[in-house]
Amino acid sequence: MSVPNSLVSDRVFAGLLEAVLAGRYEPGEKLPTQRALAADLGVTMGSLREALKRLEQMGLVDVRHGDAMRVRDWREHGGLDVLAHLLLRSGGLDRGVLADILEARTLMLRELAGLAADRRDAAQAARLAELAEAIEAAPDAGAAAQVDFAFFTEVAQAAGNLVFVLILNAIRALYFEHAALIPVTARHEELAPLYATAAAAIGAGEA
Q1: Of 25, 46, 125, 136, which shows the fewest CB atoms inside 10 Å?
Q2: 93-105: buried (b, 16+ CB within 10 Å) or exposed (e) per residue?
Q3: What are 164-190's pLDDT values in tens digits?
Q4: Model confidence over 127-172: pLDDT tens digits?
Q5: Nearest to 189 by CA among 149, 150, 133
């Protein structure tokens, strides 16, 4: 039974993406021609083109008609969609990338809390207080993750910064997939007082 083209394309995409992220193709390096690459991978031109289109949309390759395909530096051109692939490479979790995500999250929250304290309205302050109570009552890490993300999103919305809100939207699926590995949700009972303190400070305009 033949394998659907979409599955073949997914496999080709995953393989080429890993090659780019691992540095097997250096930034600026020319890729083989599409015909040669398809033959080397044992796939059709159609499946290869679908995979290359996805890489191009991610900013990782430059595909120009009639010209050589070149690899772009993912550190300069990659977006948040690259993050999930960096976190989960070769079937395992990259704890260094996870640590970077958590560090960025902490830095974001500090900045957002200050903005939220200046810009929040009464309803947002009340909502944050409710969420701070809910995190302590969460029965497990999954439930805590739901409350934690809602708290973080409410802070971002109270801060009135659209960019932060969209960043949270971009990492939503990644966050919930690995919520059990995030200390904030895995140890939510222990860390619950921090939410109450943050909510109170924002509500009082003192964060």
Answers
A1: 46
A2: eeeebbeebeeeb
A3: 888 888 888 777 777 766 666 667 777
A4: 999 999 998 888 887 888 889 889 999 999 999 988 888 888 888 8
A5: 133
100/86 Cα distance (integer angstroms): 11
Question: What is the secondary structure of 21-50 as a DSSP string?
Answer: HTTSS-TTPBPPPHHHHHHHHT--HHHHHH
Task: Tell me what the mean pLDDT of segment 52-71 comes to.
Answer: 88
Of 61, 78, 95, the one marking the end of a domain is 78
Give yes or no: residues 114 and 199 share one domain: yes
- The reply to whether 62 and 161 lie within a common domain is no
pTM for the predicted model, two decimal places: 0.74
Check whether 58 has a pLDDT greater than 90: yes
Helices (H) and strands (E) in the chain, counts: 11, 4
The pLDDT score that the predictor gives to residue 15 is 92
Domain count, the chain: 2
**Domain ranges, residue 25:** 5-78
Please tell me whether residues 122 and 144 are part of one structural domain.
yes
What does the alpha-carbon distance between residue 55 and residue 121 come to, in Å, rounded to a whole number? Answer: 42
Clarify whether residues 90 and 73 are in a common domain: no
**Cβ contacts of residue 129 below 8 Å, gap of 6+?**
196, 199, 200, 203
Provide the H-helix boundaries in 120-161: 122-137, 141-159
Spatial separation of the C-alpha atoms in residues 110 and 16, rounded to whole Å: 37
Answer with the one of 49, 78, 107 that is the final residue of a domain: 78
